[in-house]
Design brief:
The chain is mainly alpha-helical and about 170 residues long. It has six helices and two strands, in the order H-H-E-E-H-H-H-H. About 70% of the residues lie in helices and about 5% in strands. The longest helix has about 40 residues. It comes from Roseateles terrae.
């Protein structure tokens, strides 16, 4: 039940394979070059020089392009985009969505708090603005409530409140 999947070789392994293939081809060409005519030898020499010039140019351009996109940092990690040279505005822009989220949540909380206060105020206004039914005056609890408010020393409508404070 062991299934082996073909793995993709690493870039270093590919480079090593290409270098070995190049050495084999060059060894084969060098071995048979004595049997070739002078014109063919000259054309092959010119083609080798062109191929070497292209390979040198490609190798010189390759590390510069790779260094700008992926840079190795300490501890075996990779940083995209240049690592430590990230502009400050880019770091600040990364924090902007978090700041907007926190601000939105605070705004929602404040609006809900305000809505609760407003609904409680409307309920109190409705209760206090309506006239009392006649049955409320005959209720013994209401009479007790009125008596408690008149005996309260902090009640400014009580004429005896001044005397009890002194």
């Amino acid at each position: 039940m062991n299934k082996t999947s073909p793995t993709t070789p690493l870039p270093q392994e590919l480079d090593a394979r290409m270098a070995r293939f190049g050495l084999r081809v060059s060894a084969g060409l060098t071995e048979h070059s004595e049997t070739l005519s002078g014109d063919i030898q000259e054309r092959l020499r010119f083609a080798r020089e062109q191929a070497l010039a292209k390979a040198i140019a490609a190798r010189a351009a390759q590390p510069a392009a790779a260094a700008t996109s992926v840079q190795a940092t300490g501890g075996g990690t990779l940083a995209l985009g240049g690592g430590d040279r990230t502009p400050r505005w880019l770091k600040a822009a990364a924090l902007l969505p978090i700041a907007l989220l926190v601000g939105g949540l605070l705004l929602i909380q404040h609006s809900q708090w305000y809505e609760q206060i407003r609904s409680a105020a409307e309920l109190d206004t409705d209760l206090l603005s309506k006239p009392l039914p006649p049955a409320a005056y005959s209720d013994p609890g209401f009479r007790e409530y009125l008596n408690e408010n008149q005996a309260d020393p902090n009640n400014p409508s009580d004429p005896n409140a001044e005397e009890t404070k002194e």
